[in-house]
Amino acid sequence: MRLIPLLPLAISACAASVVSYAADVPYTFDLPSGPLARTLIAIGHTSGRQVLFVPADVEGRQAPAIRGDLQALQAVQRSLRGSGLTVLVTASGALGIQKADAEGVTLAATSIDANAGVAQGQAEGYLATSSRAGSKTDTELLRTPQSVSVVTRAEMDERKSDNLSDALKYTPGFSSQPSSFSRTADDYTLRGFNVGAGTGGILRDGMKLQSNPYDGSVEGYGLERVEVLKGAASVLYGQISPGGLINTVSKRPTSQPLHELGVEIGNHDRRQYTFDLGGPLDDQGQFTYRLTGLWRDSATQVDHVDDDRRYIAPAFTWRPDEDTSLTVLASHQETYTGFSPPMSYGLSSYSDTPGYKIGRDQFVGEPGYDHFNNRMDTLGYLFEHRLNEHLAVNHSLRYFQANTDWDYLIPQAVVGSQLLRRYSERDERSTGWTTDNNLDFTFEQGRWQHELLLGVDYYHKTYDSHRYISATLAQLAPPLDLANPVHTGVGANTAADSGSDLHSRQVGVYLQDQITFDDRWVLLLAGRQDWADSVTTSFASDARATRSDRKATGRAGLVYLADNGLAPYISYSQSFQPANVSNPAFGNAFAPLEGEQYEVGVRYQPAGRDLLLSAAAYVLDQKNSLSLDTLSNTYVQYGKTRSKGVELEAKGNLTDDLALTAGYAYTDSHVLQDQTAANVGKRIEGVPYHSASLWASYRLAGFGLERLRLGAGARYTGTTRTTPSAYSGKIPAYTLVDALVSYDVDEHWQVQAKAQNLFNTRYIFCNTTCRYGDERSLIGAVTYRW
Q1: Which CATH architecture has domain 2-106?
Q2: pTM above 0.90?
Q3: CA–CA dist 243, 440 (Å, integer)
Q4: Does domain 258-542+565-785 have CATH number 3.40.630.30?
């Protein structure tokens, strides 16, 4: 590295001494956007670190807001984004600012990891500029050749985020069922394909989480951020849907003291109590902790259905030196609610067919019978060790288990005024062992810089599901009279056990190289080999179905980094997902579902602005799709589905007072091949052509009300389709409005009022079956921090 001869301006709280900074602990920064010189001086004063620069080099340049727990080097790097300047670490430990193309005297320098800790730390407001989801390394989004959306903790705090679905509702290309379903399961759609827990598409800290769709939903309060990688991504994560993945990042121990208590009161008799505590345990900062908890008791818009949850998540980090860290993460979650039963479109009040319908808030089960009780536990750790300035080893492991007991009555049909109902009783237990291990090696060859990632991951899951579901008229539950609904209780469920016991394992080896040329071009090349085996035993027949799949997947992408903040890219990626169904009578010979995506896009980060604009266009295919042959009632593999579209996203802090997130998605998702000729060309159920969202949060400092913040947002979902045999028309479009009023009483107390679906818009969500949409939710919150 070279630095031009200069008379440096040394800014330091301890400038009289020259020290070696072998370690750099995080500091808490809260610096507004403004002149770069002022920001660099403030970083030096806060951290006690020397910051050297030539005044003429930084004159007239602006720095974005710097907020969060950051090392001094990280804070300086963020302040320089888009400025045409770079930073080096001198032999004495000072931070020297220079022009990117500067030449002159060569100074000894230490190695710089430009993104160290960024993706796992707190982002500034709504804007996150780095993510691990796209590469398993801390990589700037500008350098990632695939679409990634990040929802920060600050954004989740300003909107109601009881579950993962709430956190992601303003993410383009994402869709989910109403909260009545999301309380029980993480089952979502990205780019027209299901990416729920049953597909392996929900991750926690970079590793797969749930083993099946009904292991319980992720608690939003326990998350630091959510990262959404869109499109085929098996090369790093193995068995996964072509739609992509959702990586949830746990709250981690903090180097600075953190204390927060919260109380929420809302409609439907909602009461919620939360705490979030963290900080160092010793004077040296080797040991830090985090303890997060939640207790909620609440009713819902439907009688006899509660929304109760208990959650606690302890975390502990040991950092014996600057090169080593071990973080232990655990969680315990209990959910007590009711499963929202699916109904056909013809049974809803939206249908114009004659006869009685199920009301929007009508409980069609039986009190004391319908319930969904779930317990979910996790225990694991993340280990990182840097062997030298070029080589680091990462090792992570987690154990997961879930127990679910849920009974409900399924609406079958209406005869006269009598609603026929089927029994559904399920007792399920899941377990999962997962580990990921890799070596991260960086080296330079002239004008080329490489970051090579070599890894192996392993995932073993079990899913023991006992299901007793009515299959004949003789097995139906007592009917409910819709003309005079009186709950009379249930009889004996005589259905046989139609469940199964699944044991599966996955082993994958992957190699990735992120190659930077002349600090302009970033080429990503990656490949993976998977081995997947499973055994499924049917409880009804004791028949065993085995499956063994082998698959190689790849990925390639190219990004160009322009001086003006533009970063256009192009990429190709593949996915691989073993079939999850079998025909025991005919054996189990289904080939894996395979995905393939082509994507072009561009990101733009204006110099000196906390803003990131993104646009992407893609074509995403899945072949070997499965369809049900209605004549033989067996699955056949004769299908291909294509999704193509455009996604736009803007996210950031436009000023010190105004934060914004906006998105739009056009998704054209159709069946290209199918065993049933009538299915060819039809739209995928529940996927709208058009969806859009806008949320803005504004602090009224310009009006002399610095402590008052107002927020408002709207979410538009266009028309969709449901099963053509149930209804051939379009499911109506709808727009939902959310709102926020927040007031900081002082440095400790904050009061908020939040609303979802403020105008109580009525809508229905349908894919193959239908559920009524969420009604208005009103919440008042008080938070105390010290």
Answers
A1: 3-Layer(bab) Sandwich (3.55)
A2: no
A3: 27
A4: no
